Structures are given as C-alpha cells and as structure tokens.
Amino acid sequence: MHDTPDKTKPLAWITGANGLIGSHIAHSASAHAQGWRIRALVRDDFDLTDFPKVQRQFEADQPQLVIHCAAMSDPTVCEMQLAQTRLVNREATFFLSGLAQDIPMIFFSTDLVFDGKHGHYTEEDEPLPLTVYARTKAEAEALVLANQRHSVVRTSLTVGKSPNGDRGIEEQLRHRWTKGDTVKLFDDEYRSPIPAEVTALATWELVLAKRPGLYHLAGSQRMSRLEIGRAIAERNPEWNPKIETCSLRDYDGPPRAPDTSLDCSKLQQLLSFPLIGLSKWLGFSATQPA
Ligand SMILES: NC(=O)c1ccc[n+]([C@@H]2O[C@H](COP(=O)([O-])OP(=O)(O)OC[C@H]3O[C@@H](n4cnc5c(N)ncnc54)[C@H](OP(=O)(O)O)[C@@H]3O)[C@@H](O)[C@H]2O)c1
Prior knowledge:
Structural class: alpha/beta
Order of helices and strands: EHEHEHHEHEEHEEEHEEHEHH
Largest sheet: 6 strands, parallel
CATH topology of the domain at 11-162 and 193-222 and 259-277: Rossmann fold
Number of strands: 12
Number of helices: 10
Shape: globular
Strand order of the largest sheet: 2-1-3-4-5-10
Distance between the termini: 42 Å
CATH superfamily of the domain at 11-162 and 193-222 and 259-277: NAD(P)-binding Rossmann-like Domain
Helix content: 25-40%
Bound molecules: NADP nicotinamide-adenine-dinucleotide phosphate
CATH architecture of the domain at 11-162 and 193-222 and 259-277: 3-Layer(aba) Sandwich
CATH class of the domain at 11-162 and 193-222 and 259-277: Alpha Beta
Radius of gyration: 19 Å
Oligomer: single chain
Strand content: 15-25%
C-alpha cells in the first residue's frame, strides 16, 4: 500500500507495516517524517522470503531508507518453527541488508538477545540468546551491523494498538480478561516496556540524526510482568482483570530470560524527549495491587 504520492521526496520502505511497531512507524511518518514518502509494506505486497520478488520491487522502487520491522516475533511459535524462523528473521534480514547496502537501514531486534542474568543491559554487553527467536535475531544483528550505514534497534515489550488487535501486550491481556481468564504473571521476570508510538517517534528521530549503529530503545522503568499487568489492569477496570502472581522458580517450559531490562542512555542522547517509564506514560503508579 502506498501513502503520499509526492515523488519529489525520497522513499522509505517500512516492512512489517501490519504489525504493532511497523504500523506505528508508518502512521506517524506524516507527523514526524515529512521529508519522506512512505511505502508501508505488508505481507500482501510480497513475502520477504521471496527473494527474487523482493529484489525486483527494491530495484523498481529504489528506496533511500529501509526500516525493517517484519519478523517472526512470537517466541513460542519460533520455538516450533525453527526453519521458517531462521528464514524470516535471519536470511530475509540479511538479503534486505544486502539490497540496502548503499542506504541507511534500521533493523528491529529484541532485548531477548540477552540471557537476562543481570538486567540494565547496555550496547556493550554480549548477547547470549536463550531461544530460537532470540538466536535468529542476534545472528541477524551481527549481519546487519557489518554495514556501517546500518543500525540495529533493540526494543522491549511493546504496548499499543496493533492493526489486528492482538499484538500489543494490553490487547493480549484484554482478550484474556474479557473472556473471564485469570492471567498468571511472573513477579520475577523484568522488561523495560515502551508504548509503540514512542518507539515510532524515537525511530524517526534516529533516522534524522544520521548516526548509524547499535541502540537500545525502551522505557526507563524496569518492571516485572506482574507490575506491567497491574498497571494495565488499573487503567482498564472494565476488562474485569484477574491476575495470579507466579514465579520463574515454578516454571518448567522453554528457557526464559529473567531480567532483560535495557539501558537506553546511548540513544537518549540523540532524542529530543525523555524515554520515561511505562507507569508515567500510562499516567499512574504501577505499584498498587490489581
Ligand atoms: N512487540 C514487542 O513487544 C517487541 C519486543 C522486542 C522486539 N520486537 C521486535 O520489533 C519488530 C517489530 O515487532 P512487532 O511487535 O511489530 O511484530 P509483529 O506485530 O509480529 O509484526 C511483524 C510483522 O511482520 C510480518 N511478517 C512476518 N513474516 C513475514 C514475511 N515472511 N514477509 C512479509 N511480512 C512478514 C507480519 O505479517 P502478518 O501480519 O501478515 O503476519 C507482521 O505484520 C520485530 O523485529 C520484533 O522482533 C518487538
């Protein structure tokens, strides 16, 4: 799908534009990236693993910027679909970075590239991915960063409305609570949650800053899953939220990283606004019980 037809502006490709983060980046371009024409790519335009088609489209469009948000992003699905996850997250990213070798590209990655043993991770910390999802993202990061024009943005659990209504953390909680479910939330697994509209604004500021490299982009507040759930519950009592506290100590599924909170001070220096915590964004404290 195409947005503004002003051909005098350079074209930016945004992949995964039907997803949570890609949709916010694409929609916010009219406010924050007026110098760009946007091609917001969704799967119906072409599958990113159809490399000949991707190449033909790239050569036809000649974009001057790629913001690559498309991914197999559900760690549980990735664990069950190893080959497809590798193809989408690693190989398609590598192919795209090759096509974009002479232009800026921003690749979205994840805080889950870390094993979560200590938290407050900086860009200097070594990735130690625990899952298929995280491993494919970490491998793609290294391939992308081989090009000095390209950037990797690691982000965290994202709050916001997605086109399909099922990708934002509060959308997933609303779905379960309004069905009458009690949702189990870890009180000892920590992330740095961020709203998708903030991610979008920061991404456009990073584009304008022209300072490629590796960046962490997340909220400034380290929050447990339980605190995040309570914050969302408090804001939405009409969803009849029911929460049961649980602990990683009692969990025996695929590996989970206990604390992947991110230090975002490197990116913060480039931004015109502070990356505050999720509670402040939501407008209240997350410390009260649901
Ligand atoms: N959301 C978070 O909490 C979070 C946290 C950390 C990192 N990230 C990273 O941030 C990026 C964006 O995340 P997101 O939450 O926006 O993901 P998302 O909502 O799952 O969106 C990903 C999009 O990629 C598209 N896609 C997947 N495979 C494709 C293919 N082969 N060809 C074309 N399109 C394909 C999907 O299309 P369909 O809609 O057709 O399936 C989907 O719209 C991802 O790299 C993710 O790993 C996200």
